[in-house]
Amino acid sequence: MSITIKDVEHVANLARLELSNEEKEQFTGQLNAILKYAEKLDGLDTDNVEPTSHVLPITNVMREDITRESLPIEKVLLNAPDEEDGQIKVPAVLE
């Protein structure tokens, strides 16, 4: 597969880019070089390689979710700007 100037013009049009003829030639060459490099992967034997989503092993670093005593309501309400009936009172967000 190779990229033509028409392909570059099409992509530039989709991206709303205005390219000069020199830029079209340059991008055509660069994109074809990328594809040629990627074609080297076709020569690799990947039959016994397991698919991975990451190069390194990733583990969950979060702690276990353990229940514990909550703060007493009196202590919590000390930090509240206003309280009513044992609840934090906030300005209304709906009319």
From TrEMBL:
SUPFAM superfamilies reported in the protein's UniProt record: Glu-tRNAGln amidotransferase C subunit (SSF141000)
MF-aspect GO terms: asparaginyl-tRNA synthase (glutamine-hydrolyzing) activity; ATP binding; glutaminyl-tRNA synthase (glutamine-hydrolyzing) activity; transferase activity
Domain of life according to the entry: Bacteria
Group of enzyme by EC: ligase
EC code(s) of this entry: 6.3.5.-
UniProt cross-references to InterPro entries, sorted A to Z: Asp/Glu-ADT_sf_sub_c, GatC
Alphabetized UniProt keyword annotations: ATP-binding, Ligase, Nucleotide-binding, Protein biosynthesis, Transferase
Reaction catalysis annotation: L-glutamyl-tRNA(Gln) + L-glutamine + ATP + H2O = L-glutaminyl-tRNA(Gln) + L-glutamate + ADP + phosphate + H(+); L-aspartyl-tRNA(Asn) + L-glutamine + ATP + H2O = L-asparaginyl-tRNA(Asn) + L-glutamate + ADP + phosphate + 2 H(+)
Gene Ontology biological-process annotations: glutaminyl-tRNAGln biosynthesis via transamidation; regulation of translational fidelity; translation
Family per similarity comment: Belongs to the GatC family.
HAMAP family found in the cross-reference section: GatC (MF_00122)
Record function comment: Allows the formation of correctly charged Asn-tRNA(Asn) or Gln-tRNA(Gln) through the transamidation of misacylated Asp-tRNA(Asn) or Glu-tRNA(Gln) in organisms which lack either or both of asparaginyl-tRNA or glutaminyl-tRNA synthetases. The reaction takes place in the presence of glutamine and ATP through an activated phospho-Asp-tRNA(Asn) or phospho-Glu-tRNA(Gln).
Quaternary structure annotation from Swiss-Prot or TrEMBL: Heterotrimer of A, B and C subunits.
Protein name per UniProt: Aspartyl/glutamyl-tRNA(Asn/Gln) amidotransferase subunit C
Gene name for this UniProt entry: gatC
